[in-house]
Specification:
The chain has 125 residues and is of the alpha+beta class. It is 37% helix and 22% strand. The protein has helices at residues 5-15, 53-58, 84-97, 106-120; strands spanning 21-26, 29-34, 37-43, 46-49, 64-65, 74-76. It has a six-stranded antiparallel β-sheet with strand order 1-2-3-4-6-5.
């Protein structure tokens, strides 16, 4: 069962982090990014948080399950949706424990820009 947009909107609202928390559609589900760092997955209308030791310490009870078949277990944090302060702390703690996103190299960014400009042009007839 795919996650519906209403669930994702509810998660974003409950987190109360404004534009710092964003969602992106991924394979029928949604990835959540805090300050550009991938921190959670909304799958089957459940919220899965990347597992970190720091977030584990904030959880009274740790429930783990894979967000999709074949994945490693992540923290299931649906209970945190009823506690916006805990949800914010979990998200911020997780992003602080993860490495920052890698910057695209100049050559990779240039090739991506070239590829997008090639796609944008109309084929000659």
């Amino acid at each position: 069962m795919a996650t519906d947009q209403h669930f994702v909107d509810y998660v974003l609202e409950q987190a109360g982090l404004g534009d710092a928390l964003a969602s992106r559609r991924m394979f029928g589900e949604f990835g959540l990014y805090l300050d550009g760092v991938f921190v959670a997955v909304a799958a089957d209308n459940m919220l899965f948080l990347k597992p970190t030791g720091a977030a584990r310490e904030l959880l009274a009870t740790v429930l783990e399950a894979p967000p999709y078949p074949g994945a490693r277990p992540w923290f299931v944090v649906d209970d945190a949706l009823d506690d916006p302060e805990l949800l914010r702390r979990l998200l911020r703690t997780t992003v602080a424990a993860l490495p920052p996103p890698r910057a695209k190299s100049a050559s990779r960014a240039a090739s991506a820009a070239g590829a997008s400009s090639r796609r944008a042009t109309r084929p000659r007839q």
